[in-house]
Structure to design on (169 residues):
């Protein structure tokens, strides 16, 4: 085999190895993206919220505000969330979800849950976030609420939507 043929064969072998490596990396990237968005193995479907944040007995939905101690917008939005929950129908339970047991948000008008697993599972990538889940744990809505005005807009949307209709007996 002459030198040119050997170089050509070696080049093709290297190209095939690069293509296989790239395909493997793309597969891993899809798996990581699927895990971040709550879809195991890249399969589409509804992600389910952990039981700690699901609505309690008598409620059909939970409206969850994800808060963080290191988030200045969370400190502004949390009191507005506590004030707005008074206007929610009884079958929508307000919940504040924190990463750790923070006393900063614990005394407000919404149930406070400190659960790092649930926090990571529901975290859409921004804070504060408003997440609506069903009694079965299906995530129905995830919206950024970077200000009190944005929170009121999303909360009014939820209160005026089909979720606000009382469940039939």
């Amino acid at each position: 085999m002459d030198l040119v043929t050997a170089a050509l064969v070696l080049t093709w072998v290297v190209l095939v190895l690069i293509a296989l490596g790239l395909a493997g990396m793309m597969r891993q990237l899809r798996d990581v993206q699927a895990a971040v968005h709550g879809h195991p193995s890249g399969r589409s479907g509804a992600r389910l919220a952990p039981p700690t944040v699901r609505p309690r007995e008598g409620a059909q939905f939970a409206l969850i505000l994800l808060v963080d101690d290191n988030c200045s917008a969370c400190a502004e939005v949390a009191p507005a969330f506590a004030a707005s929950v008074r206007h929610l129908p009884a079958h929508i339970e307000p919940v504040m979800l924190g990463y750790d047991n923070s006393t900063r948000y614990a005394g407000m008008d919404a149930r406070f849950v400190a659960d790092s697993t649930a926090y990571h599972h529901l975290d859409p990538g921004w804070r504060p976030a408003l997440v609506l889940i069903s009694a079965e744990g299906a995530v129905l809505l995830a919206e950024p609420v970077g200000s009190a005005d944005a929170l009121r807009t999303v909360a009014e949307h939820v209160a005026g939507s089909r979720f606000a209709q009382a469940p039939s007996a």
In short: Confidence is low (pLDDT under 50) at residues 39-45. The chain has two domains: 3-42, 51-164.
